[in-house]
Each structure stands twice: as structure tokens, then as C-alpha cells.
Amino acid sequence: MISRRVFLKDGAFALVSLGFAPSFLARTAFAQGRSGRAKQLIAIFQRGAVDGLSVIVPFGEGDYYRARPSIAIGRPGSGETAAIDLDGFFGFNPRLQPLKRLWDARQLAIIHACGSPDATRSHFDAQDYMETATPGVKSTSDGWLNRYLQARHDEAATPFRAVALTPQLPRMLQGGAPALALSQIGQFGIRAGQASDLVGASFEAEYAAAADRVLNGTGREAFDAIKMLKIADPAKYQPDNGADYPRGPFGQALKQIAQLTKSNVGLEVAFADLGGWDTHVNQGAAQGQLANRLDDFARSIAALVADLGDRMEDTVVLTMSEFGRAVNENGNRGTDHGHGNAMMVIGGGVKGGHVYGKWPGLAVERRYEGRDLAVTTDFRDVFGEIVVRHLGVNDPRSIFPGYAVSPSKFPGLFA
């Protein structure tokens, strides 16, 4: 049985490493009374390499249809399974219909032919490069969002400044700055190992009192933070503005992000992911496995935006995937690993209703290595613009080591 002294020592270290700053509850209460809200970023990773060409469909390009005789999304006006026209050249997959109102309201922007300059088609490497924002460098120890948290060190930060609604902390948030991974916010708390609930409860009281003396109040505030989340019972949470979240893990993760946001616990950076995009076989078009994934994806994001309401004026939702898929469909009516892809950026401050980036074309001679959508916008330029123009970092060099972030290379997502 672990001794109380050892547990206190280890526990104290855990609390400090999680960044439980003294008096954070008082500061949070003060922050709630300020006239302006802090900026927030919600990052969403589509793990598995989503087929951007069937998500943001270049229906104005004939080579798209020649390359995909059985899985192409039809041109607008060709039936219920046709693309939803956005600008006369690009269209939404019809399963993205829930996001169309955001496009029409100019709150949603798209960056196409976007991605990494690295040529890898390895899921593991490409995800790592995107999460660390150091393409081709495997030795990077921290994620780009964690470096952002370090660059914008905030003495008034709460324990919930950066939260991933995932079982494990993603690479994007790993590093020296505090960040939490929570599968269910209602289950966040101090666990007493093999001890019973009764022992755990009594020990919690003793531990909190001891930690209060040793850490000058930090321990007590940690337990107060836990109680705050327990009071905000997810089972009793009622979304606003008619938001209807899908009941799957992704929809529920976004629902909890909205709950944390509206609980005013100091959430600044949130993360969620959704897998199942590796469609080598029977990908489908407006129906099938890709379409089903897009349905969950679109309805979940639409619910989040509706639920947050006017808080979206200070929030950006960023979607990403490690790389796109080959232009040609394969012999299994699917698509193989590719290169360029599409990202979406949603928020009140976004210059939406526009597809950003230089379109390279899909003719064979214009493809990357003769097979893939070429990358014309480095994903770091998208991240960089969000960091500078939304989150307000004046000098982003420490966030993107080895890369010259310059406004001249920004897509132009913000006014």
C-alpha cells in the first residue's frame, strides 16, 4: 500500500504539472464579468486521411469525373445525390448539408489543395508531422498547440485552459504547458486506486487539507475544480438554440466542449478527433462509408456551432486530416493514400463563403507525382494565420520552428 507521504508528494507534483495556478477560481469568476471573451480554438482531426476531393467536390473540373467513374459526386442539379453548389466550381458533398447555412452566412471558409510539403503517405508519420507542425522532422518533442500555450503563458490560466476530449492526450497538445485529456468530463476526479469509495472520500479530505498547506492553496483549488465539473453534470446538460448532437462519440465530445465553454472554466484550446476515413475499399459517393462518416461529422459540428451561439464570434473551429487521397479511384472502388487535401475554418471572425488556395488542377501532368492533388498551401500557413490573427500571437516563431511564418503566405482567412 502506498504511503500517505509518498502519495502526497506524487500527487502534489501531478497538480503542479497540470498547472493548477493559485486562486484560479477567483480569477475565473473575474473573467466571467469582463465585457469581452477570450479567443478560443477548437481543433478537429479527421484521422485516416479523408478524401477531400469527395468532401469539397471540384465539380467544375472534367478530370475529376474521368478519374472516378463510380465514386465521383454528381454535378449540382443532377439529383438528390449531387454536390451542393458553393461557388460554381466547388461543391459540398451532399452529406455536408448541415454546414451549408454557415457557408451562406460567410462563417465557414475552405482551404483546398492544402497539406504538408513532406511526401510521406504513412498515416503515423503524417499525423505526427501535422500535430507537431514540423513536416519531415520526427524528433520534435512537443505539439504546435502546446507551443502556442507556452508562447502565450497566462498566469491567470485555469486547469481547463487546454482540454482534449480523447482517452489520451494528442501529440498536438503534448509538451511543457499544462493540458488535460478527458474522455468524459463527468468522470474527471481524483481516483484512490484500489481503495473503496469511502476510503477515497476520507482520503480526499485529508489530502486536500495537506495539499492546501504544502501548495499554498493549490490543492484545495484542484478539488474545487473537480467539484465544478461534477456540478455541471453532463447528463443534465441542455444544449441551446435547438442544437441536436449525434449520439456517437464525436458528437458527444463536441457537446462536452460546448458544456466546458459555457461553464466558464477558462477553456481556451479544445481538441476532438474522428477516425474511419481510410477508405481503400467501397468508399461510396453520396452514400456509403464516406458519406456516413460525413453525416456524423457535419451534424456534430453544426450542433456545436448552434449550441455556442454568439460565443462563436470569439471561437474558431479548425478541421484537418493528415493527407488526402489519390485522384483516381482504385480497383476496389476506393481511394489510396494521396497528398493535397481540404481544411475548413469556421467562426464569426472568419471571412467565409470562399474557397481559399490556388487550385492546381487534376490533369495528370498537374498532379503531384502524377497521381495526387498537389499541395499549394502549406498547412502551417493556415495554422499560422489562426495563431496570429485569431489568437493574437505577435511573434509565432517559437510555435513553428524551422518555418518562416509570414502574412504574405497566409490564405487570407481573417479581415
In terms of topology, how is this protein built?
Elements: H1 4-17, H2 24-32, E1 40-46, E2 56-57, H3 62-67, E3 84-85, E4 91-92, H4 100-104, E5 108-115, H5 123-132, H6 144-151, E6 162-164, E7 180-181, H7 197-214, H8 218-231, H9 249-262, E8 269-274, H10 289-308, E9 315-320, E10 341-347, E11 355-356, E12 377-378, H11 379-390
Parallel strand pairs: 1-8, 1-9, 5-11, 5-12, 6-7, 6-8
Antiparallel strand pairs: 2-4, 3-4, 5-10, 9-10
Q: What distinguishing features does this structure have?
A:
12 strands, single chain, alpha/beta, 12% strand, 11 helices, nine-stranded mixed sheet, 415 residues, three-stranded antiparallel sheet
Report the CATH architecture.
Answer: 3-Layer(aba) Sandwich
Shape type: globular
* Number of helical segments with 4 or more residues: 11
Relative helix content: 25-40%
| Secondary-structure element order, N to C | HHEEHEEHEHHEEHHHEHEEEEH
Calculate the mean pLDDT score and round it: 86
Kindly describe this structure.
The chain is α/β, with parallel strands linked by helices and about 425 residues long. The radius of gyration is 23 Å and the shape is globular. The chain has helices at about 5-15, 25-30, 60-65, 100-105, 125-130, 145-150, 195-215, 220-230, 250-260, 290-310, 380-390, and strands at about 40-45, 55, 85, 90, 110-115, 160-165, 180, 270-275, 315-320, 340-345, 355, 375-380. Mean pLDDT is about 85; it is low at about 1-35, about 190-205 and about 215-220. It has a single domain (about 35-190, about 245-410), classed as 3-Layer(aba) Sandwich (Alkaline Phosphatase, subunit A). Strands 1, 5, 6, 7, 8, 9, 10, 11 and 12 form a 9-stranded mixed sheet that branches. Strands 2-4-3 form a 3-stranded antiparallel sheet, with no helix packed on it.
